[in-house]
Amino acid sequence: AHFINTRSMEIFRMFDRLDLEVSKSTPPVDEWRNFRYVTSMLGDELGYDDHLGPDSATRLRQLRSFSPTMVAHFPQHRLVPLLLQRVQEGARPVSVQFGHELVSLHEHRDCVTATIKHGGTCSQRTFDFVVGADGAHSMVRRLLGIHMEGDADLQRLITVHFSSKVLGDLLKSRNRLGMLYFCYHSNMIGVFINHGMAHGEWVLQMPYFPPHQSLDQFKAHGIAAKLIQTGVGSALPDLQVKSINSWTMSAQVAAAYTSANQRVFLVGDAAHVFPPAGAFGMNTGIQDAHNLAWKLTLVDQRLASSQLLTTYQTERRQIAKENRQLSLRNFFETVLNVPKALGLEPTAAQAAVSLVDSLPFLSNEIRSGLVEGALAIGRSQMHLIGSWNPLGTYRLQRIQELIRNRQTLQLLYMNQDIGFRYEQGAFVNRPDRESLAPPSPLRRPFDFIPSILPGYRMPHIWLQDVKTGRHISTVDFSWDVSETRLPTFTFFLVEWTLEEIRQVRSAVSQFDVPVQVVLLARDATQTQRAAFESNQISVLQPLRTSPEDAGMDIWSCKGKKVKWVLIRPDGHVADVRFTHEPAPSVCRFAGLNFSSLGTV
Q1: Run of H or E residues at 464
Q2: 541-552 pLDDT tens trace
Q3: Contact partners, residue 527, CB within 8 Å, separation at least 6
Q4: Is residue 236 a contact partner of residue 140, using CB atoms and an 8 Å limit?
Q5: Which CA distances in Å does 48 have to 111, 389, 410, 545, 562?
Q6: Are 319 and 418 in contact (CB under 8 A)?
Q7: I want to staple 298 with a disulfide (CB 3.0 to 4.6 A). Which of 108, 213, 304, 567 is the partner?
Q8: Are 317 and 257 in contact (CB under 8 A)?
């Protein structure tokens, strides 16, 4: 995993501005804005997809109008140490213990008992809650007896992690920078992933077909290094192969995210695995943890009943299923489009393997040789590219057409990134609301339209504190204004009077959960502002920083004037109203919602 999407960066922003540290370490966007399709990295280029387009400055302004932060190209193995440092050195340090193995797990009505092995010794410990974030082969999931649903074996791949700063220098000298290099060579097929040219970090992923090909084959006799240099198109004097591993591409979602008594939870790869086509794996996992954290905190602090925890599965499993479908669509309908256009029919390789498998009278050695021969014949289609024959010319034109029509793998999916919607769950499952069915995914990332309707993430709008001049995003209110550092709900009141705000503040002060009241007023007079400030009410007004900010007006939605918005601690809209209801009615509404979770 190496691409951090907008919503994950917003979550890092809440984590003591971790987004700034990640952004500081992210290479310049020109280094990773392109996906390239090549016969070798330094050889013939079949085409490239620039995901910002020719007017990149406008595109970047559009992205910045969607969020106070930006996507990042930052590999997971460098992200994890930053996260560890934050939790170990933060305001509330957390003990992180390595080398501990979970052996057994038993859930009770009011606790969880676990047997943990460390240094050859087993001990039993008791916990209020357990969160299984232990990866695709999750022991927590297995011990709970939860099965995975979906496609378990889409493709087998070899992953080679290697380093070479010379490779980055060669690519820069030829103006061929990119994040992904899809390499189609007559002797190898694979994807080279740029994990940071400054560090010389690279990953090569190649399909393979066990048992006729094995991981040991790729490790033996410098085979991996030879394949790397074939795909690069040049010798690399500083090449170092660091690791070679195999893995199985899957598209699955756990049948359940929680245990029977809501004491054990699955997050991340323990709950879902996707093809790496769209970068939804790690990002969905980060957002799982964020969704669970505020709910678990309120329940653990006795500020909400355990009923709130049931909404974790309700909300996040639906999103995982949607991301699974999009990842599958990306893999079959975009990733495989280019090899098909080149005459490298992906199903032909598997058909050849299946045919060889149907010949049991042949020795394993002969069958492996037949598979290697069949794959070599398939790759020989690449000899047609760049030659005089019209078929090669047609295939190159077809690739250009695929790129032009956005039928190749894309980098940005803003509607799935920050435009997803919880259909039901904490505060959003009310029968009097419109249908909350999510919109169909849009292929063009810049078609994204923010929404202030219930279930969506609160759109980003820059606001300015009239008194201090401080700028703050609406995205920040789930953490920035709160003095308690507890998950905090936010009432945005639009153009309310001082007396009405006093009534709302008085009412919400009776709730157990932290609730902050924020006034949005663009037309308040100086006298009114002084009155608000004397009552410790900050007056905020919109701040337009670029023409693109005009795309979202916090005061209107579908032609209706917004009067108040209730935001959950995770930044998603709980409710929005378009009528100026009396303050007592607003408070009764909030009280009913909070009491339904056992908080009043």
Answers
A1: strand 462-465
A2: 887 655 555 444
A3: none
A4: no
A5: 54, 22, 11, 33, 44
A6: no
A7: 304
A8: yes
